[in-house]
Design a protein that fits this description.
The structure is a single chain. By secondary structure, the chain is α/β, with parallel strands linked by helices. It has 13 helices and nine strands. β8 and β9 form a beta hairpin. The termini are close together.
Length: about 300
């Protein structure tokens, strides 16, 4: 059903008059296709960063989780918001130490201190280090800054770390919370944060949840028009109308006695369309047809 990432063949740009790869990496906020659902998720993340929230953003692989994180940081910078973003490294992170390395609260504290007080050496004792962390947050807050901790691959966070995040949220000055937290992960994160999971009940009661859903079939043409337009091409000159339905059919998984599952995520659509562009150019087709989509 899903294709691996593949490069756009050199002759495709000339064949379809493309100024850039329409389904490659986004080069700026203007490249991002925004529908009502994505606008809601973006705004939830933005409000969490500039005001205060404990937020979990979930989505399947290829749904755009990393893109909206980059978009949030870019927007904070463009609008000149006084928000310090803390992003612990999650390279090699796994949910237990048998598979890799778990992200512990001590690592998160080190990341916050490195961002807020880079010239200070973390204290050795746990009590002294947490006192140092609280003071650094208060000092930065008094200078006019807000603080937003963003953790990707959060579905790999171990239960003890999830519980400690709730305690980090309790650091405050008066009525003001000193640290907003945004967790970004695959749908497994929803199960880990289920209110039925007694181990994380206190966290589940305090965290908001939003999900990146697939693009609706009725929006495929608008999505393709936007991405092709950003590459200097017109949808009608590149794609035949019947190809849109073929994309929807190709990226819908149907299994006996189950509800059809939509795979219409940006990455999956981009991979399929890149393959279709390559195949159409190789066949000498002037536009992508439904048959080309089915043959990819």
């Amino acid at each position: 059903m899903l294709m691996n990432r593949q490069p756009l063949a050199p002759k495709v740009r000339a064949a379809f008059h493309l100024q850039a790869d329409p389904f490659g990496e986004l080069r700026g906020p203007e490249d991002l296709y925004i529908n009502a659902e994505l606008r809601y998720v973006r705004e939830a993340m933005f409000q969490a960063a500039v005001h205060d929230d404990f937020l979990a953003v979930t989505g399947e692989s290829g749904s755009g989780k990393t893109t909206i994180r980059r978009d949030l940081i870019d927007r904070l910078d463009r609008e000149g918001r006084m928000v310090k973003v803390i992003q612990p490294y999650v390279l090699g992170m796994e949910e237990n130490d048998r598979k890799g390395k778990t992200l512990r609260v001590g690592h998160i504290v080190e990341s916050i201190l490195e961002t807020l007080a880079p010239t200070e050496r973390p204290r050795q004792s746990v009590q002294a280090r947490y006192t140092q962390l609280h003071r650094a947050l208060i000092s930065s807050h008094e200078a006019g800054w807000r603080h937003c901790l963003i953790i990707e691959e959060a579905h790999c966070l171990p239960i003890p770390t999830l519980k400690h995040l709730k305690r980090l949220r309790e650091l405050e000055k008066g009525y003001t919370k000193l640290l907003s937290i945004i967790l970004i992960g695959q749908p497994e994160l929803e199960a880990r944060l289920s209110p039925r999971n007694a181990e994380v009940r206190e966290v589940a009661q305090r965290i908001s949840m939003v999900r990146l859903n697939p693009i609706q079939p009725g929006e495929i043409e608008a999505y393709l028009s936007h991405r092709l337009g950003r590459a200097g091409a017109k949808f009608a000159e590149v794609v035949e109308p019947g190809a849109v339905d073929a994309v929807a059919d190709r990226l819908t998984a149907t299994r006996p006695r189950t509800t059809p599952e939509s795979l219409l995520y940006p990455l999956a659509i981009g991979n399929l369309m890149t393959g279709a562009l390559n195949l159409a150019a190789a066949m000498g087709e002037t536009r992508i047809t439904a048959d080309v989509i089915r043959e990819v």
